[in-house]
Write a structure and sequence with these properties.
Layout (H helix, E strand, L loop, with lengths): L15 H34 L6 E5 L2 E2 L3 E8 L7 E7 L9 E6 L5 E4 L1 H8 L1 H17 L3 H21 L1
Parallel strand pairs: 4-6
Antiparallel strand pairs: 1-3, 1-5, 2-3, 3-4, 5-6
Helix pairs in contact: 1-2, 1-3, 2-4, 3-4
Length: 165
């Protein structure tokens, strides 16, 4: 009986197509999760990491609402103009009365935090994606070492962002 012959892992030898299908499907899911993490992070990270030609300065927060804080912008880069009001979205670790270094998004009054804290905070979605993809890699692909590396990288990124903010 061909189905009674088993490989060293206990899987019937005739199921190599099923193993390849599982590997391909779980690999695609893991890659899709990581691409989504990079995509979600890049929307903010591009402004924080690629600052050449962007307006940089400080914001002293004078008012905070549920999802945004605002205050006057004082420029630090040449060619920047002071503004009476700019908005900081995602008010994580932003307090009224605090002064924060920011980079303005082009064509508006929206600002994102800059410096190490801003870079780490921008890549938080990738850290979550690494944690989620590590579960798929360990469970679906049966690759525990790469899964541990991914999980530790994601946890390290999230912890560093928490400490920096």
């Amino acid at each position: 009986m061909p189905s009674a012959v088993r490989s060293s892992r206990g899987v019937p030898r005739g199921s190599s197509a099923l193993r390849f299908g599982r590997f391909a499907a779980m690999g695609a899911v893991a890659v899709l999760i990581l691409i989504a993490g990079v995509w979600a992070s890049w929307g903010t990270a591009q402004h924080v990491m690629l600052t050449k030609g962007r307006e940089r300065g400080t914001v002293e927060v004078v008012r905070c609402a549920e999802d945004a804080c605002e205050g006057p912008f004082r420029p630090l880069s040449p060619g920047s103009q002071p503004r009476a009001r700019v908005v900081l979205d995602d008010t994580v670790a932003v307090e009224k009365g605090g002064t924060y270094t920011v980079v303005l998004k082009p064509g508006g009054a929206e600002a994102v935090r800059s410096g190490p804290a801003g870079v780490l905070y921008a890549w938080v979605p990738l850290g979550g994606a690494l944690l989620l993809a590590s579960v798929v890699v360990a469970g679906g692909l049966l690759r525990t070492r790469p899964a541990w590396v991914m999980a530790l990288a994601g946890a390290g990124l999230l912890t560093a962002a928490f400490v920096a903010l």
